[in-house]
UniProtKB/TrEMBL annotation:
Metabolic or biological pathway: Nucleotide-sugar biosynthesis; UDP-N-acetyl-alpha-D-glucosamine biosynthesis; N-acetyl-alpha-D-glucosamine 1-phosphate from alpha-D-glucosamine 6-phosphate (route II): step 2/2; Nucleotide-sugar biosynthesis; UDP-N-acetyl-alpha-D-glucosamine biosynthesis; UDP-N-acetyl-alpha-D-glucosamine from N-acetyl-alpha-D-glucosamine 1-phosphate: step 1/1
Family indicated by similarity: In the N-terminal section; belongs to the N-acetylglucosamine-1-phosphate uridyltransferase family. In the C-terminal section; belongs to the transferase hexapeptide repeat family.
CDD domains for this protein: LbH_G1P_TT_C_like (cd05636), NTP_transferase (cd04181)
Gene source species: Methanoregula formicica (strain DSM 22288 / NBRC 105244 / SMSP)
Domain Nucleotidyl transferase: 4-226
Nucleotidyltransferase as UniProt keyword: yes
Catalytically driven reaction(s): N-acetyl-alpha-D-glucosamine 1-phosphate + UTP + H(+) = UDP-N-acetyl-alpha-D-glucosamine + diphosphate; alpha-D-glucosamine 1-phosphate + acetyl-CoA = N-acetyl-alpha-D-glucosamine 1-phosphate + CoA + H(+)
Residues in Mannose-1-phosphate guanyltransferase C-terminal domain copies: 262-374
Keywords: Acyltransferase, Multifunctional enzyme, Nucleotidyltransferase, Transferase
Name of the featured protein: Bifunctional protein GlmU
Top EC class of this enzyme: transferase
Length: 399
């Protein structure tokens, strides 16, 4: 069975983290989110993949290559313009020969569900339940057939939704050819599926596990769930006087200095300097070439490659891009005094605890205070003692 992974989208909802990288390359437990999906499919026995790439495709091609290192074979097909999901699947036309699986690249699935999908008869749509059906395509199912599909309804008829995973036969391409732009100007896969629904030819396949990773805060949840399943490893140097609790992974060339206290699950990439006297709490992922220094505390956060958090910093429930520098004493708040859900740029994170989303290359002077729910665009710079909140555009300079 061939597996087509849709990975051409920009991921506007993930901005500013996607300013310089495609959404599917954002890290979860220090691996691109798409790698977790590919590995689940490989464990389900799939070895032939077609990656539909577009936005940021160079990074995807460079990282995955021809798939040999992962024990799979990858063909790439470029979607020149991100014209919608029907268009993206259509790009796979000359790369598949028989029934094939299509997976949105921005979700987490379990191998067992992919195995079960491979054994179904085409055409199948995977479904799952959610408390936020209004954000997705809501489906109705009767006797195993999908009987209706309604996109992002304000008043969803059920909590059953389209999970973005399918089993198709090549006949889908004829239906895709007939799709015309939707009111929002996209060629939507759901319009091709509507024809199959009318013919009672679209089966429902119910998933046991599903996680959608569309917003920055979804990364934290996915990070926690992956870190909880990985065993501890140490390829670095751990000095005497370091305390490690629960699962902690330390990458090659990293040094954990004396007095550091790490409560996993945590993963630390390659060539990092941690401590002396750093305090890191789970679930936290720290990328390669990072420095977490004296009296800096991290909790439930994702820190990308090359970021420096060197002296007296606190970062909780946050996502920090690559190449950022935190001046001594700069801290991020992560809880509102009224304990209400944290909003980021007008969007409800549905979390009581959330800190900030920080793009790549942001520079903080000493003693900056970043309020809960702040979003900071890439390469912004802040003078010492700046109080930072709200949505800050990229390259903003506060002197
Ligand atoms: P979406 O999540 O709908 O789109 P997106 O990834 O661009 O994200 P955002 O809404 O934040 O801008 O896409 C679902 C999947 O389909 C995702 O894995 C990306 C992929 N996709 C393509 O490959 N090509 C496209 O033209 C579109 C719209 C999406």
């Amino acid at each position: 069975m061939e597996c087509v992974i849709l990975a051409a989208g920009e991921g506007k909802r993930m901005r500013p983290l996607t300013a310089k990288r495609p959404k599917v390359m954002l890290p979860i437990a220090n691996r691109p989110m798409m790698e977790h999906l590919v590995m689940a499919a490989r464990e389900a026995g799939i070895t032939d993949f077609v990656f539909i790439v577009g936005y940021g495709e160079r990074e995807i091609r460079r990282y995955f290559g021809d798939g040999t290192t992962l024990g799979i074979h990858i063909e790439y097909a470029t979607q020149r313009q991100q014209r919608g999901t029907a268009d993206a699947v259509g790009v796979a036309r000359n790369h598949v020969t028989g029934p094939f699986i299509v997976l949105n690249g921005d979700m987490v699935l379990k191998k067992e569900d992919i195995t079960a999908l491979c054994h179904r008869k085409p055409t199948c749509m995977c479904t799952t339940t959610t408390d936020h059906a209004e954000d997705y395509g809501v489906v109705m199912v009767e006797n195993g057939h999908i009987t209706s599909l309604e996109e992002k309804s304000r008043h969803p008829k059920s909590n059953l939704i389209n999970a973005g995973a399918y089993l198709f036969s090549p006949e889908i391409f004829d239906l895709i050819d007939a799709v015309r732009p939707s009111p929002r100007g996209e060629l939507e896969l759901t319009d091709a599926l509507a024809v199959l629904i009318a013919r009672k030819q679209l089966y429902s396949h119910s998933l046991t596990y599903w996680m959608d990773v569309g917003h920055p805060w979804d990364l934290l949840e996915a990070n926690t769930s992956f870190l909880e399943t990985i065993p501890s490893t140490n390829e670095g140097i751990i000095e005497d006087g370091v305390t490690l609790k629960n699962t902690v992974l330390v990458g090659e060339g990293s040094v954990i200095k004396a007095g550091t206290y790490i409560e996993g699950p945590c993963t630390i990439g390659k060539n990092c300097r941690i401590g002396p006297h750093a305090y890191i709490r789970g679930a936290t992922s720290i990328g390669d070439d990072c420095h977490i220094g004296h009296c800096s505390e991290l909790k439930n956060s994702i820190i990308m490659n090359g970021t420096k958090i060197p002296h007296f910093n606190y970062i909780g429930d946050s996502i920090v891009g690559s190449g950022c520098n935190f001046g001594a004493g700069t801290k991020i708040a992560n809880l509102r005094h009224d304990h209400a859900n944290v909003q980021v740029c007008g969007k409800d994170t549905r979390r009581k605890k959330f800190g900030a989303v920080i793009g790549d290359g942001v520079q903080f002077g000493i003693n900056c205070s970043v309020n809960v729910g702040t979003m900071i665009g890439s390469e912004a710079q802040f003078a010492p003692n700046t109080v930072i909140e709200g949505c800050i555009g990229e390259k903003t300079i506060i002197r």
